[in-house]
Here is the input.
Amino acid sequence: MNIQNTDIRQHILDTAKPIILGKGFSAVGLNELLNAAEVPKGSFYHYFKSKEYFGEALLDSYFEAYLVRLEVLLSAEGMNGAERLMSYWQRWLETQCGGDPETKCMVVKLGGEVSDLSEPMRLALQRGTNQIISRLSDGISEGIVDGSLPNDLVAADTALVLYNQWLGATVLTKIWRDQSALESSMCNTERILKHVRPSGT
Here is the structure.
């Protein structure tokens, strides 16, 4: 393995991410992670004092990358605020219905598993999801300002409702093994953002 010492920590995190997304946190042993990353146990403990704090670092790294991608989508040129938001939800639908484990939602994968087991990991999940909701709220505010979204939307409340909805739909997608829940979320998101009433109401 030809890798600089300064990159070893991130290399361990990057190598572990698809493994954890595929199997969960508790089911993956330290030896499996070390073998996949091709690093000795001493290197692991040099950067992470325990598996729990490795998990916290893994989540922080995941959210850091996620927020960069979110910022790219919500600041895209040539689109108004509503179009940018809908592009985000469309990407969510596509990635959570696909077969690539690297694109799956770590909040869905680990939220229920680790929140009662590890306070540092729970707090990392809380920090990360709060940042996502905050950026979505800013995106909704931008859409209200540019006139592409109704001006009576409450940005923070709407962002929370939509994020909650999509997380729940992603859990159901794993359970049902089809994308109907995410498709329903897409329709409902359009109704919320455009104030379109469901048919028959």
Summary: Residues 119-146 form the longest helix (28 residues). The chain has one domain: 51-194. The radius of gyration is 19 Å. The CA atoms of residues 114 and 122 lie 7 Å apart.
